[in-house]
Amino acid sequence: MPEKRLFLLDGMALAYRAHFAFINNPIRNSRGVNTSALFGFTNTLLTILEKENPTHLAVAFDTAAPTPRHEAWPEYKAQRDEMPEDLASALPEVKRLCAAFNIPVLEMDGFEADDLIGTLAKRAETEPGFKTFMVTPDKDFGQLISETTIMWKPGRKGAEHDLIDLDHLRELWGVDQPHQVIDMLGLMGDASDNIPGVPGIGRKTAQKLVARFGSLENLLANTAEVKGKLREKIEQHAGQARLSKQLATIILDVPLDTALSDLERRDLDEKAVKSLCTEFEFNTLGKRLFGDDFVAGRGHSIEATPAEAPESSAEPSPAARLKTLSEVPHDYRLADTPAERRKLAALLENEKRFCFDIETTSLDRFSARLLGIAFAWKPGEAWYATIPDQDALDHFRPALTGPAEKIGHNLKYDLAVLLHHGLEVAGPFFDTLLAHALVEPDQRHTMDYLAESLLGYTPVKLGDLVEASAPAADGGDDLFAHAAARTKSKTLDVESIPLVRLAEYAAEDADITLQLAGRLGPALESHGQRRVFYEIESPLLPVLVAVEHEGITLDPDILAQSGRQLQTRLDELSASIKKQAGADFNLNSPRQLGEVLFNKMKLVDKPKKTRTGQFRTDEQTLAALAPHHPIVADILTYREAAKLKSTYIDALPGHVAPHDQRIHTHFHQLVAATGRLASTDPNLQNIPVRSEAGREIRKAFVPRPGPFTLLAADYSQIELRIMAAMSGDPGMIEAFENDLDIHSATAARVYGVPLANVLPEMRGTAKMVNFGIIYGISAFGLSQRLGIPRAEAAEIIETYFAQYPQVKAFMDRTIEEARQDGFVETLTGRRRYLPDIASSNQNVRGNAERAAINTPIQGSAADMIKLAMTRVHNLLRQQNRRSAMLLQVHDELVFDLHRDEEHDLVPRIVEAMQNALSLPNHVPVKVDTGTGPNWLAAH
What one-character DSSP code corresponds to residue 616? Predict the structure, then answer.
């Protein structure tokens, strides 16, 4: 008899898992709908259908109705946060998908998905020929495993799934029989379900007790054989242990009307599945099902603002028909001779606006060799010019350095490579990636995505040119970036691609990018982002290219010395922590650290736990405890020092560029929602200046050889100045007008003492409140940071608002306007959309409200320093200065300052920064400067 393969999917658990797997970077379709849960669930389902050959299938879900577990223990699962709205709205779509696949959906009030799966699995064990696979990440299902019932546990982050059978179960749980999993859960509890267990008994102890006594009941009947405090715990909490076992036991006799024969696999409804893939824009999944010809398309019009975008509907959107190169008229030409290149260059010099896109051999802007440049200035027409040598590149120098507007996608890479090849491209610029990031900040910004969503067109895929050895993935937007994304390699023999095909590919990129610019220009206007784009982001492009090109000098000897000092400090901290703990343990193990702090030292009565039942030892949890326990403060210091050592001391030498022995970071313009610049490879913005370890690392950054010193120019308390300006609060404005220390001035007002009588601890508290207010700090948050009672923190905040009433009015007004408009704006009009501002979930809504308060302030500060960078860059260029701008770090600019220019240049830099963006209510902007032989000394 052929084997019957029954797959029972825990729909709720799989949807939860998928949603949170993408929580930091949700998958959204072009209408802004979060499709993470649906995508992840469908991906798992297709893997099963394609590889496991199921003969029977069903998907089980929980319902909102209480179960016998809730009746026995009202706190059952009570600790869980309310289901995120995006996930809640996705569950009906998961069920729609199951219906389209003709897969039965099982749910019954009073029972959980676990119970439905357990009941069917046990039924299948009584039927000949069945082998059952329980598809779930939930460890509790281990109690159901048998000779014919196994767990199919999805892998993490793309890894293969695990099959947990009886042998594997014994390895995982250390028990002889599956039902003993329930005995272990009765003793150790389950934090994810809020099952209490016996306090102080963890997994290892529970395992030993079950192995020794066989069952919870036998243990409770023979507690006299257990010694010491463990016996006391078990006897004291015997009833709780029995209850916990009851709660953890999966019900196996649910009165389901469904027969196993009802679960036989049926053919999917092709039309319905295609419609769903189209509606949710699942191109990759659609191709898995229906072949490479399937195209999901996009259903979004760029003319609608995000606030006006249509809501998700139960009715599927019509399938979009995307065109390809073979279907549209086009005229792409190849210029691969000097005569053809001269002809193309002459045509370009007559154009006021054109698009260009380079093709290279590498993603590294300094080692990449230039192969060619594609140009387009009319839709449907484009050229590709080969660049075999410098003379070929020089043909295009007049056009690229002329006054025409240059269009491109991710232009910073193109500009950087050309600059390294000796050609500095002149603006103005129109970068379609930046434009789309301003118009639709929550969407993807790859050229392929934009072409499909805005033009209804699918560009030539890399697979048409290069044999890919890895699954398709979104990459960058020149040829090599696409290849690297798919092959996960930074080397590719691009030159092996036939020139005619490479030329067509490159020309299409330029043509499509030109057309995208035509759509995005009006969208910037309709979304109110024209000023931000044309006055801030576009002019900043060549500035960032120049700053990255300059790099900064690192002294390896100073860094090595700092490393030795840091290691000594780490050793001292480690010894101190272990001495305070009275135990030798692995400080870098969150599990061991949690056991020491909360089981051994019992720092708190009810320590928080993770979903897996492990004690929480994350920074936020420990920071709340630090004011009360010296060991916790030492642990946080140790962690910061260890992170700095691995991130900077050990890693920075590997970032020194071979061609000039300097470090060249990458700046990203629009990664942060507030518009602040981000730095990667390496991240030079997160080296702290307040910690000893961070200061030591900054010492290693030095000026270039010769008559240079480092200059740091730093906006003074700029975010508080912006708060004063936007709120119009007279008390705060007065402090800045009189150039008072704002934190001391605030302390004097809050504590009702003269300015001269403000104590350091008063100023420290005021400083915490000043900066905390910008981030919407609560009384609870302030109490944690200061280590004071919540009532005292609430009183401080109340007094603060009484002294600065316009600040409170500004915060309330901003939240209300955000609720009405769906977005907030900086002083320049940069928008941040806040879809969660009207959420019914208090935690979600609170996060959005804090973002509403912070974004106009932090975003305006970001706008100011971006404008300042452009002004300073132009100042240095126009006056042919030998000094150079090297870094932007939050509110600070760092320069290699030529000593001969120090006297007259520094005041000009300060003036340019102070006048970059005028603040309302005449609030003055102040810039502090310092010079020195290293970054620390200059700051």
Answer: P
Q: What are phi and psi of 424, to 5 degrees?
A: -95, 105
Rounded CA gap, 616 and 621, in Å? 7
Ranking 311-320, 867-876, 902-911 by mean pLDDT, the lowest is 311-320
Same-domain status, 100 and 221: yes
Q: What residues contact residue 408 under an 8 Å CB cut-off, 6+ apart? A: 355, 356, 357, 414, 429, 430, 431, 432, 513
Selection from 283, 299, 302 nearest residue 291 by Cα? 283
**Are 205 and 275 in a shared domain?**
no
417 within 8 A of 364, measured Cβ to Cβ: no
Structural domain includes residue 502: yes
Min mean pLDDT across 390-404, 462-476, 585-599, 788-802 is at 462-476
CB 843 within 8 A of CB 81: yes
- Distance (Å, rounded) from C-alpha 569 to C-alpha 584? 18
| DSSP H/E element including 712 | strand 708-715
Of the three residues 299, 317, 347, the one that is the final residue of a domain is 299
Residue from 38, 14, 10 nearest 26 by CA: 38
Q: Reduced to 3 states, what is the DSSP secondary structure of residue 898?
A: strand
The predicted structure's pLDDT at residue 481? 39
Half-sphere exposure of 496 (CA within 13 A, CB side): 7
CA 468-668-895 angle, to 5 degrees, is 130
- Return d(Cα 822, Cα 307) in angstroms, integer: 6
Whole-number Å distance between alpha carbons of 772 and 16: 33
State which H helix or E strand residue 714 sits in: strand 708-715
**Can you give the length of the chain in residues?**
939
DSSP string, 7-56: EEEEHHHHHHHHHHHTTTS--B-TT--B-HHHHHHHHHHHHHHHHT--SE
**Does residue 437 share a domain with residue 375?**
yes
Do the beta carbons of residue 289 and residue 276 sit within 8 Å?
no
Give the 3-state DSSP-derived string for 535-549, with helices as H, strands as E and coil as C.
HHHHHHHHHHHHHHH
Residue 321's contacts (CB-CB under 8 Å, 6 or more residues apart) are 295, 297, 456
Q: How far apart are CA 436 and CA 516, in angstroms?
A: 9
**Measured distance CA(514)–CA(348) in Å, rounded:** 14
Are residues 282 and 344 both part of a single domain? no
CB 125 within 8 A of CB 252: no
The mean pLDDT of 770-788, rounded to a whole number, is 81
Is residue 484's pLDDT more than 50?
no
- Note whether 383 and 447 are within 8 A (CB): no
* SS3 state at 679: strand
Paired residues of 709 in beta bridges = 897
Give me 922's structure tokens. 């005449």
> Residue 806, CB half-sphere, CA atoms under 13 Å: how many?
12
Average pLDDT value for the chain: 87
Q: What is the pTM of this model?
A: 0.73
Q: Is the pLDDT of residue 265 over 70?
A: yes
pLDDT tens readout for residues 372-386: 999 999 999 999 999
Is 640 a member of any domain?
Answer: no
The number of domains in the chain is 3
pLDDT band at 327 (very low <50, low <70, confident <90, very high): confident
User: Domain holding 455: CATH number?
Assistant: 3.30.420.10
Domain extent at residue 357:
325-522
Confidence of residue 891 (pLDDT cuts 50, 70, 90): very high
Q: How many other C-beta atoms are found inside a 10 Å radius of the C-beta of residue 106?
A: 24
> pLDDT for 854-874, tens place per residue?
999 999 999 999 999 999 999
Determine the average pLDDT of the residues in 774-802.
84
Q: Are 540 and 865 in contact (CB under 8 A)?
A: no
CA 312, 318, 319, 325 torsion: positive or negative?
A: negative
- Which tens digits make up the pLDDT trace of 560-607? 999 999 999 999 999 999 999 898 988 888 889 988 888 888 888 888
Instruction: State the pLDDT at residue 301.
Output: 43
